[in-house]
Amino acid sequence: MNKFLVGFLIIIAILIVLWAVYTASDTKEEFVEGEQTRREDIETLALYFGNSRKMDLPIDCGWVYPVEREVKEKSERSSLEELLGGPSGEEEKNGYFSAIKKGVQLEEFLIDGKTAKIRLSSDPMPDLGGLCSKAMIKSQIEQTLKQFPGIEDIEITVIN
């Protein structure tokens, strides 16, 4: 009976060691669109868009709502580039929209102290945009950038 207990304890010890080795592995891999990527290389980024399903009356033009996206690089610049790309098809189905005109590109981006300085390729205002569009564009950019520590102000210029 003593031999049985010793054998049982050895098996339990081996299982515990195997479990510890498996759970300690941080390099779990997954396949994404034919590419093998490490899950640890993916970060979550918040982008802010308007949402026709969440807005209540009276409408506050500056209200924007976060959408989470998985990206390989989470930075201020990459967040702006993602934002300028607009909502994905799935996000649009869920009521999300951008007040920023399609086709606007980020030409220059730098951080000067606590101020993010953004230079866009063209006017981000839609052709029929008004004060409400202007407030929403500002809010989309501000909220997207303020997820990064140290950014308090934003300056936007446009190449004419």
From TrEMBL:
Q: Which InterPro entries is this protein grouped with?
A: GerMN (IPR019606)
Domain GerMN, chain residue ranges per copy: 47-158
Q: What is this protein called?
A: GerMN domain-containing protein
The record's section on Pfam families has: Germane
